[in-house]
Design brief:
The protein is an alpha/beta fold and 207 residues long. It has five helices and seven strands.
């Protein structure tokens, strides 16, 4: 089956065009929340960590150096900008799809999903794929914007058909995604930005 992102050339083109200015718009407003979310990544024994949807690599300077990282993104222009930020890390860069990860089951010890579940066309599939390649007992560090269950948010829902094709969805409900990933349990869930629209969520794979 063709990965969904290849069926959305407008989204791919949009991120190719956005790449040069992405950092100017995103880096500073998100920096503190990003670092707070990544603090959940264990800093002890070296582990294999997947950064799925690495984008321009804004997470990379904040990651512990002892781990081995795989940084994946669907856009070559984004990966090109991410590479210099990984110079101090043991990191492999992979062009691939967060909804169809090119890795075996139970492959990674930890996974970082920052600002990716609301970008992909199928957020539930993105989370399910992360759960598939995560080892039992491993964690998923999730930072993204989510609507609360039952929240109307009419403007966000109205804008999503357009914004989802150009950059990001605004109508994703995390609790709905979790129903498609029954092996995951929530360890913590805290508001990080924009009055709780952006949440930092720590998940663990139980089996």
């Amino acid at each position: 089956m063709t990965p969904d992102y290849r069926c959305n050339p407008l989204l791919r083109l949009s991120y190719s065009l956005i790449a040069p200015v992405y950092d100017l718009v995103i880096e500073r407003p998100m920096r503190a929340a990003r670092k707070r979310s990544l603090a959940a990544l264990p800093a002890g024994v070296s582990r294999h960590v997947l950064v799925s949807g690495v984008g321009t690599g804004l997470d990379l300077p904040h990651l512990p150096t002892q781990h081995h990282y795989t940084a994946l993104d669907f856009n070559a222009a984004m990966l090109a900008r991410a590479r210099p930020r990984g110079e101090k890390l043991d990191v492999e860069f992979v062009l691939g799809d967060s909804m169809a990860l090119p890795f075996a089951d139970n492959h990674f010890d930890h996974i970082v999903l920052h600002l990716i579940t609301a970008v992909v066309p199928d957020p539930a599939r993105c989370l399910s794929e992360a759960a598939r390649v995560l080892k039992p007992g491993g964690s998923i560090i999730l930072f993204d914007k989510f609507l609360r269950p039952g929240k109307a948010a009419p403007l966000r829902r109205l804008l999503t058909p357009l914004s989802g094709r150009l950059a990001t969805r605004m109508d994703v409900v995390f609790e709905d995604l979790l129903q498609d990933a029954p092996d995951l349990e929530v360890l913590s869930d805290e508001p990080l930005l924009a009055g709780g629209w952006f949440r930092g969520i720590l998940l663990r794979k139980t089996v």
